[in-house]
Amino acid sequence: MSQILLYEPRVLLRSLVQHLIDGKSRPLWPHQISTSYITDIRSSANKSMCVLVGVGGVGQNFAELLRLFRHLKMMKVKTVAWVPADYLYLTKLLRAVGVNEVLTEENLTNELTATLQKMAAPWDAAIKRRRVPDISQTELDILLLFSAGLSAKDISVHRGCCYKTVFSWKHNICMSLDIKTPDQWLTVLAEIAQISTLYQQR
């Protein structure tokens, strides 16, 4: 039976998820502080673990969470995340860093219930990873620098690399996230910036 590690600091959503999980009689390890959650998972990740995250509640630790998801993918840890419904490119980004299932907050009860039912079967058979191009750690770092407001020139100086190399990384990011226009690129950056400030822990 998978051990479930839940991170959802927002009380109503956390109560909802805990209720759904309790109904499945699965071991639950809830967290309300994202820094301790990330630290605990990094130190104890294993294939029998299932990580559940309410991304809208992560706040300023969103960048570190994305890096954690890439790490968990390499460890073959099961991951499920939920986001506000209108964050199209954020959903694509989460899949590109390795999240197995991306759900929407607005339909969380139905979608998470279905996902928990799938978990009753062996994970590899129950959930087929969508064919989404991966985003590398370097590309993820570059994307986060862009979302923080740095220009390509700033990033080239920061990384100590050629200006054209930054554009090559940006091109790869756009391919992975199916970004085809400048407006879509700005939407991606806006979604990352918004989700990073949507919920601030006190």
Automatic annotation (TrEMBL):
One of its GO terms (biological process) is regulation of DNA-templated transcription. It comes from Enterobacter lignolyticus (strain SCF1). This is Regulatory protein LuxR. SMART domains: HTH_LUXR. Keywords: DNA-binding. Residues 132-193 form the HTH luxR-type domain. GO terms for molecular function: DNA binding.
